[in-house]
């Protein structure tokens, strides 16, 4: 028969023979039919025969128990045949689906089948004995009235450990779904079910049931505390993965209300943010990304805004001290690529709320009013904490909108002056969105800057097309200009550059045409700013490039002389030698200049190796390795602003002889107001400024008083 015992070697010889004769499918179908017949004709009728003539429920249960036992024994007799058939299928490579299953049985020995309760072989299962012993022991302890005294603490500790392990196993590093309901259900069914079995022999079941329900509340509280602590430990990852982690945040919000862990959450999260973010190893854009994610997460976790205000305070302070924070924020707001801040700029609605005014809550919602948490800052109203959008919060990192708007103005100037085209549509769109956030007054100067670009395009077109000015005939090459209203633009980087005479002549022709058009207005040229499109003809090729005026002037002089020293060229161009060497490096990278000796450069007309002998044209644009901004650096602009104070300070000390720092600061706040915005200076910054003047011997300091040195 099919169940005849054979050795493993004999079995595989039979399998090889079956495979050679291509009988695998036939044997499989034959075996399946035999098993089906056995089941249909013997096993099934014997199973159902047990349920005939049931006298009572107890008798019915005993018959059911007998039926299941006989069914199990019958299936176990068929199991060896099914295993051999499964090995035959594997040997022949058959993957036929039978009754919806790809395999007939698991490939394991009978002695490997173990009970899930006692871990013994099924034939030697001790679960019934263990449960009987467990129940008998508990019954005796209850009758002696010592179960609670003897094992109460152990039972409680055991359940606590089991809860903690279960929470860790179930919720570790998974934030995309809620676990509170499933944990509560597990506690009700598994933990309390086991606890009920422990006390099932209590003589006073009503009292025992009440005690278990009371104990359930304590276990629920421990469950909430365990789950809350687990989520608090994972809070940084939850923040980074937001909004995918919204279910975990909602769970934590519910659990914090049920536990006394708000203070622990505040301290732990604040410490985690400091450890993970506030060091030089994390660049500013990454800190900002985490900060934005934290704002969104904590707003869901605590709608009052108190937790957000407290936890992110070190982050705001750290960002305030990073020199590139505002520029990174503004860049993220106005970049074309995907950006959370750019999306926020478009998505958020305007909320005209004065955060410093004590606004009353809407009287229509007085029934749902709740007091602020105990850790709330009393100087801020609940409405102001809840109304600030993310962009306003980032702008207010510096305490005012002026610093943010000033940085945006500088960045806008960079972009407008770095673009060859006159297209301002994108910048105008961003400006309109920012005006909704910060008001038109703060961004008026930016409007003028964009208008300057538009007017420059119109003026250039008019001067070129109008025959009355005749620019095309007077100029050997076309010259256009960006005509800027100087008082509305940030300070430009001051550099010297002596242009070739022919270029200066073209500037003069353009200036005269502009004066004819505008009457009483003239132009003050910035020769180091702008773009120059040049064609360079060499022996074997022609190159077209768009470069800066300094780069163009350098290569221009090499058509007059084939070699220049740094010193001679620096004198000719009125450019510092260090700056000139950096600029020459671009032409070296293009293969047009070569340093033959220290500070001596020559023009290279032939392509190295004799390549590209036929004439060719290469179109390129110069990307200076420095990526120089035409605007003065933030430090230089600030230094220029602080110089505004110096004339006031000299005047005050001349009239009053000597003054303390605080008095000087108070008077400066009254009198010093220059430039497009009020120049602000806090006490610490003023102290550094005055101390520098002391080191420069322009001031004297003694006894806490500053005075001018005697001349």
Task: Write a concise keyword list for the protein shown above.
711 residues; mainly alpha; Arc Repressor Mutant, subunit A; three-stranded antiparallel sheet; elongated
Description:
The protein is mainly alpha-helical and 711 residues long. Among the domains are: 8-94 and 127-221, no CATH class; 404-517, no CATH class; 532-603, Winged helix-like DNA-binding domain superfamily/Winged helix DNA-binding domain (Arc Repressor Mutant, subunit A, Orthogonal Bundle), CATH 1.10.10.10; 634-707, Arc Repressor Mutant, subunit A, CATH 1.10.10. Helices cover 59% and strands 5% of the residues. The chain contains 28 helices and nine strands. The strands form three sheets. The chain has a three-stranded mixed sheet with strand order 1-2-6. It has a three-stranded antiparallel sheet with strand order 3-5-4. A hairpin with a 2-residue loop joins strand 4 (593-597) and strand 5. Helix 9 (246-258) crosses helix 11. Residues 107-111, 349-361, 610-621, 623-627 and 674-678 have low confidence and may be disordered.
Shape: elongated
Q: Total number of helical segments? A: 28
Q: What is the CA–CA distance across the termini?
A: 125 Å
User: What is the spatial order of strands in the main beta sheet?
Assistant: 1-2-6
Class by alpha and beta content? mainly alpha
How is the quaternary structure best described?
Answer: single chain
Poorly predicted runs of 5 or more residues: 107-111, 349-361, 610-621, 623-627, 674-678
Overall number of strands:
9
On the 0 to 100 scale, the average pLDDT is 79
Percent range for β-strand residues: 5-15%
Main β-sheet, in a few words?
Answer: 3 strands, mixed
Approximate helicity band: 55-70%
Indicate the radius of gyration in whole angstroms.
Answer: 42 Å
Organism: Timema shepardi (Walking stick)
Protein name: Anaphase-promoting complex subunit 2
Keywords: Cell cycle, Cell division, Mitosis, Ubl conjugation pathway
Family: Belongs to the cullin family.
């Amino acid at each position: 028969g099919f169940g005849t015992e054979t050795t493993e070697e004999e079995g595989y010889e039979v399998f090889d023979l079956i495979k050679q004769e291509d009988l695998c499918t036939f044997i499989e179908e034959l075996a399946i039919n035999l098993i089906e017949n056995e089941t249909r004709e013997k096993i099934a009728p014997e199973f159902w025969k047990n349920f005939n003539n049931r006298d009572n429920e107890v008798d019915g249960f005993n018959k059911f128990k007998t039926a299941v036992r006989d069914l199990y024994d019958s299936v176990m007799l068929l199991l060896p045949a099914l295993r051999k058939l499964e090995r035959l299928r594997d040997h022949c490579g058959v993957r036929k689906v039978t009754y919806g299953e790809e395999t007939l049985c698991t490939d394991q020995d009978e002695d490997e089948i173990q009970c899930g309760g006692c871990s013994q072989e099924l034939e030697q299962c001790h679960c019934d004995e263990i449960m009987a012993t467990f129940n008998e022991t508990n019954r005796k302890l209850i009758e002696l009235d010592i179960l609670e005294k003897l094992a109460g603490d152990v039972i409680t500790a055991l359940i606590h450990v089991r809860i903690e392990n279960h929470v860790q196993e179930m919720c570790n590093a998974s934030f995309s779904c809620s676990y509170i309901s499933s944990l509560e259900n597990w506690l009700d069914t598994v933990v309390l079910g086991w606890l009920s079995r422990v006390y099932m022999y209590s003589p006073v079941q009503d009292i025992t049931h009440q005690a278990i329900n009371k104990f359930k509340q304590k276990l629920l509280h421990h469950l909430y505390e365990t789950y809350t602590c687990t989520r608090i430990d994972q809070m940084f990852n939850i923040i980074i993965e937001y909004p995918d982690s919204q279910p975990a945040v909602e769970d934590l919000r519910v659990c914090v209300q049920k536990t006394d862990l708000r203070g622990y959450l505040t301290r732990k999260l604040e410490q985690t943010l400091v450890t993970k973010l506030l060091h030089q190893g994390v660049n500013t854009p990454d800190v900002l990304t985490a900060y934005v994610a934290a704002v969104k997460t904590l707003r869901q976790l605590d709608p009052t805004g108190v937790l957000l205000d407290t936890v992110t305070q070190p982050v705001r302070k750290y960002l305030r001290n990073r020199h590139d924070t505002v520029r990174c924020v503004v860049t993220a707001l106005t970049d074309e690529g995907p950006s959370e801040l750019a999306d926020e700029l478009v998505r958020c609605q305007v909320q005209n709320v004065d955060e410093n005014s004590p606004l009353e809550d809407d009287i229509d919602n007085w029934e749902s009013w709740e007091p602020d948490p105990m850790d709330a800052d009393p100087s801020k109203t609940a409405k102001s904490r809840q109304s600030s959008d993310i962009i306003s919060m980032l702008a207010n990192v510096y305490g005012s909108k002026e610093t943010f708007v000033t940085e945006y103005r500088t960045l806008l100037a960079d972009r407008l002056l770095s673009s060859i085209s006159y297209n301002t549509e994108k910048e105008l769109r961003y400006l309109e969105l920012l005006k909704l956030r910060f008001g038109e007054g703060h961004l008026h100067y930016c409007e003028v800057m964009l208008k300057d670009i538009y007017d420059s395009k119109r003026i250039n077109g008019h001067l070129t097309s109008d025959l009355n000015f005749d620019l095309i005939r007077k100029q050997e090459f076309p010259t256009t200009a960006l005509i800027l209203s100087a008082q509305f633009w940030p300070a430009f980087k001051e550099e010297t550059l002596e242009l070739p005479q022919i270029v200066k002549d073209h500037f003069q022709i353009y200036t005269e045409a502009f004066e004819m058009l505008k009457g009483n207005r003239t132009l003050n040229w910035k020769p180091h700013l702008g773009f120059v499109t040049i064609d360079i003809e060499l022996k074997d090729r022609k190159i077209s490039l768009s470069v800066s005026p300094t780069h163009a002037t350098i290569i221009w002089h090499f058509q007059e002389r084939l070699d220049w020293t740094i010193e001679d060229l620096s004198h000719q161009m009125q450019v510092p030698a260090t700056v000139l060497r950096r600029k020459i490096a671009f032409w070296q990278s293009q293969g047009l200049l070569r340093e033959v000796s220290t500070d001596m450069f020559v023009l290279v007309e032939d392509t190295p190796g004799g390549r590209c002998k036929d004439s060719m044209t290469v179109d390129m644009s110069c990307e200076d390795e420095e990526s120089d901004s035409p605007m003065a650096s933030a430090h230089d602009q600030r230094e220029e602003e602080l110089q505004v104070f110096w004339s006031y300070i000299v005047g005050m000390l001349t009239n009053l002889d000597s003054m303390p720092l605080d008095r000087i600061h108070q008077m400066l706040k009254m009198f010093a107001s220059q430039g497009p915005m009020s120049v602000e200076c806090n006490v610490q910054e003023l102290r550094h400024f005055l101390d520098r003047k002391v080191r420069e011997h322009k001031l004297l300091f003694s006894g806490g008083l500053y005075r001018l040195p005697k001349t």
